[in-house]
Amino acid sequence: MPVQIDLFPQNFKLTNNPLDTLTVDASPFCGISSPFGEDPLTWIPAAIDAIINDFRRFAADATKTLGKWFPTAIPGLDASKIIQGTFAISFIPDLQVTWNSIVNAFQGAITGQYGAVIGDVETALRNIPGANIVGEIAADVIIGILSATNIPGLDASKIIQGTFSNSFVPGIQQLWNVITSSMNVTNSGSGGNALITDVEHALTNIPGANIAGQIAADVITGIISATSIPGLDASKIIQGTFSNSFVPGLQQTWNAINNALNNPASGSGGNALITDVEHALSNIPGVNIVSQVLESVIPPLTSGWGGSIVGEVINGALTNATIAGSALTSAITNQNFIPALTNTWAHTIDGTLISGGQLATSVIPPITAAMTTGLAYTDTIVQALTGTSGTGNPQSAITGALQNIPHTCVLGPWIGDVGVALQSHVDAGVQGITAGTATGNSLAIFQTAMSALTNFLGYTTRGTPPANSVAAQSQSNQITLANQAVNKPLQGAVDPTTDGPFDLSQLMTNSTLPTIAVAQANSAICFVSTVNAGVKQSIRWMGYITGTLTGFYVNVYQLNTTTGVCTLVYSSPNIFGAVGSGSVPVWNALNLAAANYITTAQGTIYAIELAVTGGGSYNVVGAINYLPTHPTAIPAKYGALRNPPAVTFDAAGAGGTGTGTTVNFSWPHTITGNCLIVAVALYTAGSSTGETVKVGSTTVPVIGSYNYAANSYVHFWGMMNPPTGPQTISLSYNGSAAQYVAAASVSYFNAGSIATALGSNTGTGTAATQTVAAALGQMIVQAFTNNGAANFSGPT
């Protein structure tokens, strides 16, 4: 529960001479108004200044002045001219109201004829009622001896020295704890209790969200949000300089100007400085000028000027100036702006700048060879392509030459003659397909050879491949193999799609079928080879139950015939309710869900295991195999019985706890088993920025995380085959807010693997329970904890 602490509210602090030093908390006077709508405390100096100005004008004795001058009617007054007299209280606006308010607030008596006098104020301030004190009073301001009636059963005069223990003061420890928790401070005392240093730290670091009342302006640092500042008369600001951040949008304005004028910003964070803005405005790009510029503002453009001017912005004739042709980025539409070009004009004009059609023939000089620099002559082109030496070729001669380029003129990066190279490739292709040596083969011969090859291979982009082709025979073989996978002899397993451990015809003539007993202490395994591959969707067997069973499970493993290791590929839930009943063998089928179909490869061997729980047994039909165990083959027999050891407890670690935004602690754990589990309980209102659990220097993987209540979590970490012997388990949790972390560890023998986490449960009360379903051979690890920072506990 948060505790509100008011520090000296509505209180005055006086020295021995209260008129010399008077420090007032302004909050009790909020709402008191003066005739001019201002705060009375800020009006007093202004009123005194007004009175001085009054005397400066009239040079009068203050005792001779009655009433109050309106401030605007008082001219400047020299204070040195006032040499005697005393101002009346009425000369100071609202002073009498202020005195009356002080005395009334402290329930004092007003003795003056027209209100409180200064003596009433002094008496009131020296006799502040206890009811007016809404916060705590420091012990060092209490003098004298407490009345015995205030202390039950104790004569205060008997206590003359020593210090009370905290336990002697009821509720003091709880108060300390409440103060620190309300201020989000971590306690450093034993048992999570606060020390007085924690309380001091809390009170010197009160979160802003805990302040519910007013705050004196002189304790505020930084910038106050504009919405929190009342109306302010700008004329009251007489000195100083506003920070840019005080003017909304100023920095954005600077940045916008700078960016619009393509000027780089030199301020931090890519922000523009005022010098950047000044430089940008002094160097406006021409492209930013969207209307015409008067000639009078354009300086002479010298021949070295490298800028450009859009023609549309030129208004008026350009005189006595030279503009480089490259500087014109669009046509000058008004020809009056262009001076006449004389015969002595020796410059060039970019053809793209000429608009309005072709130049008149009369103004085009004769074109000489020197004027066609970089252009090939028509004769030169025709001669190069045809190998002739004729001259005066027309344009049609160029067209004909380009349409009939000799292959000897076509060169590539790796050949000198494209025709010779093409012939070489055609010959190589025909020779490779026909195994011949002939050369000079035509493209038709190459096409015939390729057609024969594709027909043989059966390559086609649509339809079916030709009969007897390689592709057709391959497809036929694939169909045959696929059909074999689902068309096995009926006597093998009744169902023609089935692969089994032995031929059922060996048993079908027995009036009593032989069986193998499967009990909780031992499971039965048979080995099945998938001769023709296929996708397996169902598992079938025959048998019956004897006695009472509570669970029935089917496991499928893939056998590595090199190492003998069986890898689990499917494990069923408890299917006891679906297993056939009776006292003689009956057929049973476990149909797999589509997500659990087993895609087999040809020749892969699988181990199918039947396992049960309960006091009875299951009698599965099987053939008795009297063959000895093979010394080297895998599998060494057609079937087996398995007696898996149970998972058993090894040891538990000491665990540990920690608090703070960064939590690091460790504990010892001697590990002998092959499986380690670490449970971590976490309470935090923030978010995690990094969590790690290690055994020695080895990182333990996370198994699952549960958010079981607001800000409350349980994390499971675990690993198979951890480092053994005396180990140190370490934990590191980093968060954005205070964290309360508790952890414990446990290890086990004979674990085969760590399964996925099963779930969580929550509740209230003095006891916690959780019901989970365990499969055959599983050991369940559960962690219990309670949430909340005040009563947080670790996992058990």
Describe the structure.
This protein is of the alpha+beta class and 796 residues long. The protein is built from 13 helices and 23 strands. The strands form 6 sheets. Strands 16, 17, 18, 19, 20, 21, 22 and 23 form an 8-stranded antiparallel sheet that branches. Strands 10-9-13-6-15 form a 5-stranded antiparallel sheet, with no helix packed on it. Strands 5-14-8-11 form a 4-stranded antiparallel sheet, with no helix packed on it. Helix 10 packs parallel to helix 11. The chain is flat.
Key structural traits:
five-stranded antiparallel sheet; 796 residues; 21% strand; flat; single chain; 13 helices; alpha+beta
In short:
By secondary structure, this protein is of the alpha+beta class.
Helix and strand arrangement:
Elements: E1 12-14, E2 22-24, H1 40-58, H2 95-105, H3 118-126, H4 172-182, H5 196-203, H6 250-260, H7 274-282, E3 293-294, E4 314-315, H8 378-386, H9 395-403, H10 418-434, H11 443-457, H12 470-485, H13 490-493, E5 515-519, E6 523-530, E7 534-536, E8 538-546, E9 549-559, E10 566-571, E11 586-591, E12 598-600, E13 604-614, E14 617-621, E15 639-642, E16 648-652, E17 656-671, E18 675-684, E19 688-695, E20 698-699, E21 702-709, E22 712-720, E23 725-749
Parallel strand pairs: 3-4
Antiparallel strand pairs: 1-2, 5-14, 6-13, 6-15, 7-12, 8-11, 8-14, 9-10, 9-13, 16-23, 17-23, 18-22, 18-23, 19-20, 19-23, 21-22
Helix pairs in contact: 2-3, 4-5, 6-7, 8-9, 10-11
